[in-house]
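[09:14] KT: can someone run the structure on this one? pasting the chain below
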Amino acid sequence: MEITAGGLLEIRITAADVGKRVSVRRVEDGRSGSPSFTDTIGVLTSWNDGVLTITRKDGTTVRIAESSLVAGKTVPAAPARRRGPAASFEELARVTARAWQPLESEPLGEWTLRAAGGFTRRANSVLPLGDPGIPVPEALARVTSWYAERGLPAYVQAATGAAGTQELLCAELERLGWVNEVSAQVRIGALAPIADVDADADVSDVRLLRAPDERWLSRYGKVRDPDLARRMLVEGPSVWFAVLGGGRAIGRMVVDGRWAGFGAVDVDPEHRRQGLATAVMAALSRRALEEGASAAWLQVEAENPGARALYDGLGFATHHAYHHFRAAA
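[09:31] RB: done, structure tokens below
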């Protein structure tokens, strides 16, 4: 926080700073009657009627009474990673989208409406990378109609937590009654260490396929329409499927230039904590290195501590968070 020569905290932000990353301190009454201070860092998404709204890195919203402010300033975007691959939000957003392609898409300005018969939120949500060309409320009305014509709920995928992410759009969606149904982290890391990791299971036992077989689909477990799933899952620049132990563990990878994207890593609950997921990741990584990739990414839901711990151990770090907002019923 800013401290003046006289030792006093200073408020150096105004409503004109909406859209910028800020750091603020507010005072609250403590339980003992003495004041306490709380610091908040995030993007200032609104300042109306004496209330500031700040969206934090994880997508949560904090509302702060202007009268409780004791200090505030604008701050630079979160510093770039000092190890592993560097990437902008837009680059990662486009790479991750190519790895999970819809069966149907339509532009709305710089937004992309995506549909795939309801198979996964990622393939059945709007990717809003830019300006829709019309006011956001009108754009969302068109989005809702477009998905209703296909018998699907309307979702918008929006991100927070990195330079160029969409905190202002997230705030607007909340204001208009859209509900953040699920949040996830996009994590990145160097590829070579994953390929070299020592796994308890034998990496050589992992079978790599160009299309999912019945054992893979059975372990994946999210398939209501196998034909639709197969059409979806094989789409991407260079797609690989891994199966270990007759289907006890599986994974999917898409190689796209320097990036290898991992998904659908799943292990039979009776065989977890035996290194099977690590072996699957290592085998896929070795194939990606052969195709010229050097960096890795994956997506993990915020409420999946087991997967987060696995990826921590493999050297992945969070780049940004993304959220699927659903239109109010």
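[09:33] KT: thanks! Residues 1-7 have pLDDT under 50 and may be disordered.
[09:34] RB: yep, looked fine to me
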